Amino acid sequence: MLPFKIRPAIFWDMDQNSLNEQAHMQYIIRQVLQYGTLEEFMAVEQYYGHETMIRQVKNIGYLDPKSKAFVISYYHINPEEMLCCIQRQSHPKYWD
After folding, report:
1. Sign of the CA dihedral 38, 30, 63, 15?
2. Is the separation of the CB atoms in 69 and 45 below 8 Å?
3. What's the Rg (C-alpha) of the chain?
4. Tell me, what DSSP letter sits at residue 8?
5. Beta strand ranges found along the chain (DSSP E)
């Protein structure tokens, strides 16, 4: 059980009762960034702390464009420091 209030729908792909706030920190942050409300984001940031959030966000492998733009603006992070900005997502070419 998480020590902060977040809608269960955010963790649609995992059993919320098995979530551990320390072991699944990056997963929780990513899900809240992509699917949560501003209030849920603020609750997570208050729990983990500003510096921990920045450190975790920099190591997330993928964020949707909206979440990526929000994080860069909110935390004043250089995109070149973010794994999701420097790591290319594969887009296979099926036919030429």
Report:
1. negative
2. no
3. 14
4. G
5. none
Q: Cβ distance 86 to 80 under 8 Å? A: yes
pLDDT in tens, the chain (96 residues): 788 889 989 998 988 888 999 999 999 999 999 999 999 999 999 999 999 999 999 999 999 999 999 999 999 999 999 999 987 656 655 655
Angle CA(51)–CA(76)–CA(7) in degrees, nearest 5?
Answer: 60
Cα separation, 14 vs 12, in Å, equals: 6
Query: Count of CB atoms within 10 A of residue 68's CB?
Result: 20
Alpha helices in the chain (DSSP H): 25-35, 38-48, 50-58, 65-75, 83-86
Q: Which residues of 2-25 are buried (b: 16+ CB within 10 A; e: fewer)?
A: beeebeeebbeeeeeeebeeeebb
Query: Which one, of 94, 14, 28, 22, lies nearest residue 57 by Cα?
Result: 28
